[in-house]
Automatic annotation (TrEMBL):
Native source organism of the sequence: Drosophila albomicans (Fruit fly)
Lineage: Eukaryota, Metazoa, Ecdysozoa, Arthropoda, Hexapoda
Chain's role: Protein phosphatase that catalyzes the dephosphorylation of the C-terminal domain of RNA polymerase II. Plays a role in RNA processing and termination.
Catalyzed reaction equations: O-phospho-L-threonyl-[protein] + H2O = L-threonyl-[protein] + phosphate; O-phospho-L-seryl-[protein] + H2O = L-seryl-[protein] + phosphate
Name listed for the protein in its UniProt record: RNA polymerase II subunit A C-terminal domain phosphatase SSU72
Localization: Nucleus
Length: 195
């Protein structure tokens, strides 16, 4: 399998804003069939005061969030990069989506921090079996800032390019993860779950 579009991939962070969207953008440009999600209760973005984040419901459009922050303090939110990030996001899809609300099934789900990985695994284990289709849930730790999100997108793409070459991902994945971990000096969490 050398066609990346044959793999159905989800990338998941907490708010479906930075890390998952950077990877979504990058993977889509490389031809992957990709969706992105968050696992939080709500979408949280830094506010002007540290203890007063901007909070939105999942499903609120990136356009609305962009306009809201722009009206609150355009200079501040331009300076901290949020308006740039939201501009990118609104060109990729309409709004942040919550992983726990999707009915879609994937071959691979990639999370970007252990807490998100745990929430994805917990959610998958709590679902009633549908068709016993396997899904590989992998975690690649990515720090939540714009520079690390970009580097994380490169790492995730590198790992998925490796997996896209497999004709039997269920059989080959452990070896591919080990090769990736050694080459990139990273630890990858991995679980096999079923729909």
């Amino acid at each position: 399998m050398t066609d990346p579009s044959k793999l159905s991939v989800a990338v998941v962070c907490s708010s479906n804003m930075n890390r998952s969207m950077e990877a979504h953008n990058f993977l889509a440009k490389k031809g992957f069939n990709v969706r992105s999600y968050g696992t939080g209760e709500r979408v949280k973005l830094p506010g002007i005061a540290f203890d007063k984040p901007n909070v939105y419901e999942f499903g609120t459009s990136y356009e609305h969030i962009y306009r809201d922050l722009e009206s609150k303090d355009k200079e501040f939110y331009t300076q901290n990069g949020l308006l740039h990030m939201l501009d990118r996001n609104r060109r990729i899809k309409k709004c942040p989506e919550r992983f726990q609300e999707t009915k879609e099934q994937f071959d691979i789900i990639i999370t970007v921090e252990e807490r998100v990985y745990d929430l994805v695994v917990l959610h998958m284990e709590s679902m009633a079996a549908v068709n016993n289709r396997p899904v590989h849930v992998l975690n690649v730790d990515v720090v939540d800032n714009s520079e690390d999100a970009l580097m994380g997108a490169f790492l995730i793409t590198d790992m998925l390019n490796l997996m896209a070459k497999s004709n039997d991902i269920d059989n080959d994945i452990d070896e591919m993860i080990q090769e990736f971990e050694e080459r990139r000096n990273r630890v990858i969490l991995h679980s096999v779950l079923f729909y």
